[in-house]
Write a structure and sequence with these properties.
Elements: H1 4-28, H2 31-59, H3 67-89, H4 92-111, H5 127-161, H6 166-170, H7 174-207, H8 215-237, H9 241-265
Keywords: Cytochrome c-type biogenesis, Membrane, Transmembrane, Transmembrane helix
Protein name: Cytochrome c-type biogenesis protein CcsB
Pfam families: Cytochrom_C_asm
């Protein structure tokens, strides 16, 4: 009997508990709850990784070729990215916003589970690993940027209303959130760039053309241009704070459509229905 499904279910349970713990923590700000929350979330990430390894062994290839596998790997990188972010900046409150979103992605992965299929010859390439990891790493970073942007706008609203209420007491200062958001973008953008370049090289190797304006390619380029514009406007025009946060939210909507909308709704080489 494969250990894959039991590992997935255990991972989902651990993420569910960690999400509940994060919500309790943001309300009560209890140190013991914080420690329990961190431990539960890290345990969930460990079993998440074990689930990916189990799927890899079951399928015989790097598992990022179907909707189920892509959601599984993407949500893992989001969770791993948050652990790195939290260890660097000490922002456990961010987990209260990120954990529910990541739980949704993992639940979607489980509900879309399917048996592994043999890979088409074009996908039997080392480029699958490089392109898949870098592309999803960029998208995971932009997910963290999206969460930070939402938190920024919530905190800004509290300050403008001069109520200094629930969120103001629990969320980081605006300048710190803006700084963190920028640092995340400077990590995610190179990963996305490498993902697009390696995808083009892989396409030329497999199909004899670097670029064919496949819907996924087109929307990946649009997403790249959006984030390039965000970074450029910050460096040249000084667009920070609220403007940057709103643009990052728009950018993440492009990420979601590139990741899910294009693959589910539009025909092309990356369509999950064709895999």
């Amino acid at each position: 009997m494969s250990a894959y499904k039991p590992l997935l279910i255990l991972t989902l349970i651990l993420y569910t508990f960690s999400t509940l713990h994060y919500l309790v923590f943001i309300v009560y700000q209890n140190e013991r709850v914080e420690k329990l929350t961190k431990a539960t979330f890290r345990a969930a990430v460990v079993f998440h990784l074990l689930s990916i390894v189990a799927r890899w062994l079951q399928a015989g290839y790097f598992p990022v070729t179907s909707l189920h596998e892509s959601l599984l790997f993407y949500s893992f990188l989001v969770a791993l990215g948050y652990i790195l972010l939290e260890s660097r900046f000490k922002l456990p409150v961010v987990g209260a916003f990120l954990s529910p979103l990541n739980l949704i992605f993992l639940f979607a992965a489980i509900t879309s589970i399917q048996q592994p299929k043999p890979l088409p010859p074009a996908l039997q390439s080392p480029w699958l690993h490089i392109h898949g990891i870098t592309s999803f790493a960029g998208e995971a970073a932009f997910t963290l940027s999206f969460i930070i942007s939402i938190i920024y706008l919530l905190q800004e609203r509290e300050i403008k209303r001069k109520k200094m209420g629930f969120f103001f007491k629990r969320l980081p200062p605006l300048n710190k959130l803006d700084e963190i958001n920028y640092k995340i973008l400077t990590i995610g953008f190179p990963f996305l760039t490498i993902g697009i370049i390696t995808g083009a090289v892989w396409a030329n190797t497999a199909w004899g053309s670097y670029w064919s304006w496949d819907p996924k390619e087109t929307w990946s380029l649009i997403t790249w241009l959006v984030y390039a514009g965000i970074l450029h406007s910050r460096l040249t025009a000084g667009w920070r704070g609220r403007r940057a946060a709103i643009l990052c939210i728009v950018g993440y909507l492009c990420v979601l459509f590139t990741f899910l909308g294009v693959n589910l709704l539009l025909p092309g080489l990356h369509s999950y229905s064709s895999m």
